[in-house]
Design brief:
Helices cover 22% and strands 17% of the residues. By secondary structure, it is of the alpha+beta class. The chain has one domain (32-131): Alpha-Beta Plaits (2-Layer Sandwich), CATH 3.30.70. The longest helix is centred in the N-terminal third of the chain and has 16 residues, at 2-17. Bound molecules: iron/sulfur cluster (2 copies). One iron/sulfur cluster (SF4) binds next to α3.
Length: 138
C-alpha cells in the first residue's frame, strides 16, 4: 500500500530536482518549437513578382469539408482571374489542409501560426487582406 506512494513521491522529487528536463515554456514570452507538419493559420502566397497567386478557381472551397471558404472571382484589366473576395470562417475551419492540397497553383498554405484566440465572434472571418502575405519590399 505504501510502496506505490513512495514510488510516486520519488518520481515527483526526481523531476523537481532535475530542471534540465523541463518540458514547458514560459508562454507567451517563450514559444514552443512546432512541427514543420503543423497546420495553423492559412496564408495566401505571392509569386516572384509579388502578385497574389490565387486565380479564384474555387477548388479549395469545393474541397473544404467544413464549407468555410467563400470566394468571389473577378477578371482584372489584364484578363487574369483574381479573388475579389476570399474569406475563411476560422471558427468552422478544422485545419485539415484539404484546401492547400486542392490548390492547383500552390496559392494557399497552412502556416505554423497558432495564436488564433479571438475576443469577439465577429473576428472569425479572415478576409484576403488578413491572409495575403505582405509584399516583401514594403
Ligand atoms: S483547412 Fe480544411 S476546413 Fe480549413 S479551410 Fe482548409 S479545407 Fe476548409
Ligand atoms: S487558393 Fe488556390 S484553389 Fe483556392 S481559389 Fe485560389 S487558386 Fe483556387
Amino acid at each position: 500500500m505504501i510502496t506505490p506512494l513512495i514510488k510516486g513521491l520519488a518520481i515527483t522529487l526526481r523531476h523537481f530536482l532535475n530542471p534540465l528536463k523541463i518540458v514547458t515554456v514560459q508562454y507567451p514570452d517563450e514559444k514552443c518549437q512546432i512541427s514543420p507538419r503543423y497546420r495553423g493559420l492559412h496564408e495566401h502566397l505571392r509569386d516572384n513578382n509579388e502578385v497574389e497567386k490565387c486565380v479564384a478557381c474555387g477548388l479549395c472551397a469545393k474541397a473544404c469539408p467544413s464549407d468555410c471558404i467563400k470566394i468571389n472571382g473577378i477578371e482584372n484589366e489584364e484578363g487574369e482571374r483574381k479573388a475579389e473576395v476570399y474569406e475563411i470562417d476560422m471558427l468552422r475551419c478544422i485545419f485539415c489542409g484539404y484546401c492547400e492540397e486542392a490548390c492547383p497553383v500552390n496559392a494557399i498554405h497552412l502556416s505554423g501560426a497558432y495564436e488564433l484566440a479571438m475576443e469577439d465572434e465577429g473576428e472569425k472571418i479572415f478576409t484576403k487582406d488578413k491572409l495575403l502575405i505582405p509584399i516583401k519590399n514594403k
